[in-house]
Amino acid sequence: MSSQPPADPARLPAPSLEEIRAFINELVPFQKHVGADVIAIGDDCATAVLPDSADTLNHVGTRHAGALFLVAEAAAGAALAGALAEWITATVFVLRESRMTYRRKARGEIRAVAEFPGRELRSTVRSLAAGERFEATVTSSLQDGEGECVAEAEFTYHCRVRLTEPSGQA
Predict the structure, then answer these.
(1) What is the total count of domains within the chain?
(2) Cα(65)–Cα(116) distance, rounded to whole angstroms?
(3) Which of 30, 44, 64, 163 is least surrounded by CB atoms within 10 angstroms?
(4) How far, in Å, CA of 130 to CA of 166, rounded?
(5) Which residues have CB under 8 Å from 5's CB, separation 6+?
(6) pLDDT of 103-135, one tens digit each?
(7) Is there a domain that residue 63 lies in?
């Protein structure tokens, strides 16, 4: 048995965006069940794909609204995770509110592109103490294989600071 204390998550190295992306794809069992996959993540954006599969069709042969919601939210959560990358081990967030507008029938592979416009988030989080809460809103746009917009969504997340320091900071 080691006599060293357990590692402090606040002092662990921050995961890379690729590590965050891979973790997100393993985190939600229903996302894996449907086949939605986060394929790219940046500092304030992410892209997820819903494959063309008979398993995600509705009764009229187009993508089911629930599957579209899932891929839109997967991209949005990944975009927020990218924005919080430095703080990802020091914060936790859950979906609080959503709004989705379906523009046209969705067929084939669907690509969800999410953007987080809150560039001030990093300074806000930096100023919060452990236990404090904040909200973050992310938008997603869904396109079919021809680049046509099939839906748009907005997701508001309830976030809480768990630790007072970001990963890798002293």
Answers:
(1) 1
(2) 23
(3) 30
(4) 11
(5) none
(6) 999 999 999 999 998 778 877 888 888 899 999
(7) yes
pLDDT digits (tens, 9 = 90+) for 8-26: 445 567 899 999 999 999 9
User: Is 61 domain-assigned?
Assistant: yes
Confidence (pTM): 0.88
Which CATH number fits the domain that encloses residue 139? 3.10.129.10
Residue 169 lies in a domain: no
Which tokens sit at 109? 């592979």
Let me know if residue 86 belongs to a domain. Answer: yes
Q: What is the 3-state secondary structure (H, E, C) of the chain?
A: CCCCCCCCHHHCCCCCHHHHHHHHHHHCHHHHHHCCEEEEECCCEEEEEECCCHHHECCCCCECHHHHHHHHHHHHHHHHHHHCHHHCCCEEEEEEEEEEEECCCCCCCEEEEEECCCCCHHHHHHCCCCCCEEEEEEEEEEECCCCCEEEEEEEEEEEEECCCCCCCCC
